[in-house]
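Q: Given only this backbone (134 positions), what sequence would you predict?
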């Protein structure tokens, strides 16, 4: 049974003109892109998206970064989409991510790590709704 996850190409990767390479990888990994938007979040929209992290010390920097430029938000569909996309992205910190993963290949720092992926079915549903309600 297919599952959906939310993926974001973050502002660092968009600025480096990596949209095409990342989407090519997504398709090669067997995902179908079922919705996609290029957008520039306001600070408030970035804060809303990452509200789960609002008590974290990195929240203000993260939401500044996520509102610093254009992003690509997508819904990806395949079998086990959530865990598969997180595996393809690699660990949060690009320096600790496995060789060949997107964050290892294209991430710059633990904050500027090229991509986002939902971490569970409930967060995936909430995050998909955040960008693609109706
Ligand atoms: P994840 O994106 O791998 O699920 P989370 O812990 O959910 O990682 O953190 C969300 C995002 O916040 C990360 O992708 C990264 O951009 C940023 N972040 C996480 N930890 C740190 C940190 O220690 N310093 C700066 N930014 C961080
Ligand atoms: Mg997370």
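A: Predicted residues:
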């Amino acid at each position: 049974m297919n599952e959906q996850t939310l993926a974001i190409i973050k502002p660092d990767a968009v600025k480096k003109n990596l949209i095409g390479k990342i989407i090519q990888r997504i398709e090669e990994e067997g995902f179908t892109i079922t919705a996609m938007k290029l957008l520039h979040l306001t600070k408030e929209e970035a804060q809303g998206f990452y509200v789960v992290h609002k008590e974290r010390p990195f929240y203000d920097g993260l939401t500044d970064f996520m509102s610093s430029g254009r992003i690509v938000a997508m819904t990806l569909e395949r079998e086990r989409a959530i865990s598969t996309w997180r595996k393809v992205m690699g660990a949060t910190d690009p320096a600790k991510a496995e060789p060949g993963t997107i964050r290892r290949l294209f991430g710059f720092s633990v904050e500027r790590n090229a991509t986002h992926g939902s971490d569970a079915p409930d967060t995936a549903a909430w995050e998909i709704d955040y960008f693609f309600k109706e």
